[in-house]
Design brief:
Rossmann fold, 10 helices, 45% helix
Amino acid sequence: MAIGGALLIIFGYAAFLAVEFVLMGFVNRCDSAPRASVPQLVKAWWGEVVTAPGVFCWRQPFRSRAIPDTPLTAACAAHRGIVFVHGFVCNRGFWNPWMRSLSSARVPFVAVNLEPVFGAIDQYAGIIERAVAELEAATGLPPVMVAHSMGGLAVRAWLRQHGSDHRVHRVFTIGSPHRGTWIGRFAHTPNARQMRLDAGWHQDLTSLETRSRRELFVCYYSNCDNIVFPASTATLPDAENQHIAGVAHVHLAFQPQIYEDVLRCVTADAH
């Protein structure tokens, strides 16, 4: 019975993902992003089937504190750090593979927990502010921000509330619904409502942003993102928008290209 129950959960989850991919493929037909091929869709579906359970069933519930933030001591001075901001219904354990690698590379970092889990996105600005201030004080340098999904919107809300453009070196967003997502219509929590397609909250946020602020952003998006679609909603005007083909939403955050891009940015001016 235990084996049967486990198989039911696994195959049920895979089937649910398949439904998301069908919806995503249908909605993306009229999007400006490159159209995904059938092999790309199948590969992306399988990548998510393999990746997401490790995140949601192991790292986040049981290993969220397995890798602590870097001790912010005098040894961090003149080494640019990273602030990690997770997405919807996640926690800092999402970033464990990143944090493990960065610990080995001696790159300082702070990974936040956005709480309350179902609060409004604007409520998270204070949490991000504290993390940025900690890294600033320890390193003497504006940090790099790395944000997945809703985390990218939380960073933008922090920038709006604190006018902190000069306090961030670069912002990397990964599958962030900068203009909302079609699938947001099925969610009803305060932060999920703010992620609906072209919600008023998005429009207000965008109306107060300058071109120079948006130029701080590097936005990674995919034509196989099963959560944020149409695909181009994960881009920003004036930002450096980078398309990574054939990768689903959670799996996108663990692509080697993105990690290497961020690491180059952090270490480029090391002295």
